[in-house]
Amino acid sequence: MKRIVVAHDGTKAAFRALLAATDLARNFGGRVTVLSVLPEGCFQREAKRKFGQGKCRDVMKGVVDLLRSEGVDGDTIILPGEDPAQTILNHAGSTGADVVVIGARKRQAGRKNCWGSVSSRVASQAPCTVFVV
122, CA 20 to 30 Å: which among 38, 42, 94, 106? Predict the structure, then answer.
């Protein structure tokens, strides 16, 4: 588990996934890439682009600070994409990720509990191991 990709959207579930990925990296000597996907509309409209990217950069700065404080090698990347699951899958495949770590919130679907759609798609279609937190 040398190449660890963490999907991060600023939620509590994503933060828990980041902590799990940090533990994996420390235990296996891996490198963490924290990936955030912004809708392409945020890149196209100037005001939204500045706000979305600025807010995302602030979150990512905190992520980098956390990685450094834990002694973990890593970086961040912000990619545009209307379909976060597909963007995560494409990135994991193109970089040869060994594992994708993704947070999920349980959502109530009638009487069944199920994962969110992004984590479900990534878990079922990834070219590598997926750790759902």
Answer: 42
Strand partners, 75: 33
Ordered by where they begin, the domains of the chain are 3-132 (3.40.50.620)
CB of 42 within 8 A of CB of 53? yes
- pLDDT of amino acid 9: 87
pLDDT digits (tens, 9 = 90+) for 83-131: 999 999 999 999 999 999 999 876 544 444 455 689 999 999 999 999 9
Q: Which residue has the tokens 């959207």?
A: 9
Q: At what angle do helices 46-69 and 12-28 cross, to 10 degrees?
A: 40
Find, among 130, 10, 121, the residue nearest to 60 by Cα: 10
β-pair partners for 2: none
Task: Give the chain's radius of gyration (CA, Å).
Answer: 15
Per-position DSSP letters for 19-82, written without gaps between them = HHHHHHHHHHT-EEEEEEEE-HHHHHSHHHHHHHHHHHHHHHHHHHHHHHHTT--EEEEEEE-S
User: Is 101 within 8 Å of 20 (Cβ atoms)?
Assistant: yes
